[in-house]
Amino acid sequence: MKKRSGFYGLLALGLLLTSATMVREQPLPNLRPNIIWILSEDISTELSCYGTPVVQTPVLDQLAKEGIRFTNAFTTAPVCSPSRSAIITGMYQTSIGAHNHRSHRDDGYHLPAPVKPITDYLRQAGYYTVNVKTAAPGVATPTKTDFNFIPDHPVFDGTDWNQRKTGQPFFAQLTIDETHRGKAWKTVVKAHEPRINPDDVVLPPYYPDHPIARADWATYLESIQLMDSYVGKILQRLKDEGISENTVVIFSGDNGRCHVRDKQFLYEGGIHVPLIIRWPGQLKAGQVNTDLVSAIDVSATILKLAGVEPPAYLDGRVMLGAGIKKREYIVAARDRMDETVDKMRCIRDRQFKYIRNYLPERPYMQPNKYKETEYPMWNLLKELNQQGKLTPAQALFVAPTKPAEELYDLKTDPHELTNLATLPRYRKTLGKMRTILDSWVRTTNDQGQFPERKIGLSPKP
């Protein structure tokens, strides 16, 4: 796909995705603060400040008390590379051709004009931009980018904010990857205290109550506890350097939790993430914000916090300060993941979620080496299904095909188990969601409409 110079009327997207309501808020002060965006890999809202029992996250609980905790924050994709491509640009990954997981690694693909990484605008405004390598003593943070495009020049200036000029404000992005399923779960996570008793965890109803499932879920929660301790060390570094008061701290997940039916899918577990923002003395502490927000809105807001007017083409919108526009819907997309070819889109409002499966003949559980190797629950579900030991709710995910459309009432069915798409009394709601998605696809020129010319698979999960 070649670099595109036109941008297909993306400004109309604002009208589509918001029947926007203006809300009265105080203007953001023009103080040019430092800004740190902490991304924890593969987590949903399993923090104690979000009401999850058993897990202990005292650092993030305190951060939420000192800032704003968002209860309805969503990523635009349920896996890292398209999600990270979206947040670094403030654009839907489908609008910029970055929608297929770990694509465009060797084909020379660049962002379509006029899109740029948000760090370009921050740099022009005098900010030093950092992809942090060592966030604090004892906290190694990989300089992961995972962008599905080839940058025109380095996206970041350095690997530590101490490399900046004296008095220069900085923007830092850092990744905590211990929450990403992998070898860390068998080593440093297991070594961290306190441990979690698998008998005490609460499993979603779409998982079988099995020792393997309980142990795996407990390990996931333990990885969150370890991550929480790392955030504490990062915040302590800010205090030790005397910059805590003039630093905006943003904490979020890069996509949902790494479990079956969650990561790589458009259910809540794949796209609903924690989001906490603290700016001492400038943002009222202890707020709980229930607005629908997208991760690309964080990108636009970062520019605004830095005193940079977000460019008009952005899909993301400022979500703090005066004159903000509240979203009525969020949109998320799933496309090829590793060797697994699929295509899904979803529209979610405050009550309903609509998922369109463009390849319904393909099962949810298509062959996937990464999941078959790393997800204990993946093979467990298959085995229990063959033995006839799954409940109807648990068997949904192992079905040989998918419904073409899914519609869920999230107020009465938060686990998305009862598909309402075929029921006559929901015909009007279904029609509304169809119209919104069709308009979004056209208005944003969703690149998933076009076949992928070349699949260059990465060996990494």
UniProtKB/TrEMBL annotation:
PROSITE patterns: SULFATASE_1
InterPro entries for this protein: Alkaline_phosphatase_core_sf (IPR017850), Sulfatase (IPR050738), Sulfatase_CS (IPR024607), Sulfatase_N (IPR000917)
Keywords in alphabetical order: Calcium, Hydrolase, Metal-binding
Pfam families: Sulfatase
GO-annotated molecular function: arylsulfatase activity; metal ion binding
Annotated ranges, domain Sulfatase N-terminal: 33-308
Record family assignment: Belongs to the sulfatase family.
Protein name: Sulfatase
